[in-house]
Amino acid sequence: MPAEALTELPVDGGTIHAEHAGTPGGEAVLLLHAGVADRRVWDDVIGPLAAAGHHVIRYDMRGYGRSAPATAPHSLVADALLVLDAAGVGSAHFVGLSQGAATSVDTAIAHPDRVRSLTLVAPGLSGHEWPRLPGFAERMAAAEAGDTHGLALAIAHLWAPLSFEKGEKQCDAAARVILDQAEHFMSDEQEIDEPSAIPRLKDVGVPTLIVLGDKDVDAITEIGSILEQGIPGARTETLANADHMLPLRTPDRLVELLLDHL
To answer: First vs last Cα of the chain: how many Å apart?
Structure first.
């Protein structure tokens, strides 16, 4: 079931591109992408969820995919709620990848009436102190040299290593969706930092599923443990043969977990 354009949502001198699939009036699911990707990371998930009777909504964060770059500081939580409002949805099941997972948790804490459940895939977490990740020096050198493609390629090697098992010339859709964000990686971030979620995880009151990939970076696994320990009743599933771009690696298994959880 293909996604259809929902809206080009005006925001601060630009637009947020949003799409939906399924039957409006069905239980709503909001898909939030990672900070290295765009809405296409959900290409293999949106159709099966819609076919199961859900009203599935996805969008590009500002500066990603078809959404215009940010022109002013903005809140990722507020943007997510704007998308729900544009869809006429009061509350939704939030399914977030990486940064999208962090935004989902932030929304559940700040606006609990808008979130029906959480599925946190390869999650980020507001307030988490990140270690220096592998390949840091290479990424910094590319950024300082203004090497847009080199920076994007280094980021893809970090977050989508399974894409390069046959060499860089054979990279797949997971790597391409990262490489397509190259211009964004060189721009100044305009997202407003949310308050640390860590001391408030106990306030999350909705069913929470954490989904990890066994080929992801260790820092993500650590965040998964923090979330599982901090959110009452949270549980974790770890999927084999999946790196950070998990929805494009093991979509069938992810959909099974989602249909059981939602």
So the answer is: 19
Q: For residue range 198-207, what is the model confidence (pLDDT) as tens digits?
A: 999 999 999 9
Confidence of residue 2 (pLDDT cuts 50, 70, 90): low
Q: Which residues contact 167 (CB under 8 A, 6 or more apart)?
A: none
Its pTM stands at 0.94
Beta-carbon-side half-sphere exposure of residue 13 (alpha carbons within 13 Å): 7
DSSP states of the chain: ---EEEEEEEETTEEEEEEEES-BTBPEEEEE--TTS-GGGGHHHHHHHHHTT-EEEEEPPTTSTTSPPPSS-B-HHHHHHHHHHHTT-S-EEEEEETHHHHHHHHHHHH-GGGEEEEEEES---TT--PPPPTTHHHHHHHHHTT-HHHHHHHHHHHH-GGGGTT-GGG--HHHHHHHTTHHHHTSPP-BPPPPPSGGGGGG--S-EEEEEETTS-HHHHHHHHHHHHHSTT-EEEEETT--S-HHHHSHHHHHHHHHHH-
Question: If 0-12 CB within 10 Å is exposed, 13-18 middle and 19+ buried, where does residue 20 land?
Answer: buried
CB atoms within 10 A of CB 24: 12
> For 185-198, what is each residue's pLDDT tens digit?
877 778 889 999 99
The pLDDT tens digits of the residues spanning 98-147 come to 999 999 999 999 999 999 999 999 999 999 999 999 999 999 999 999 99
Q: How many residues does the structure list for the chain?
A: 262
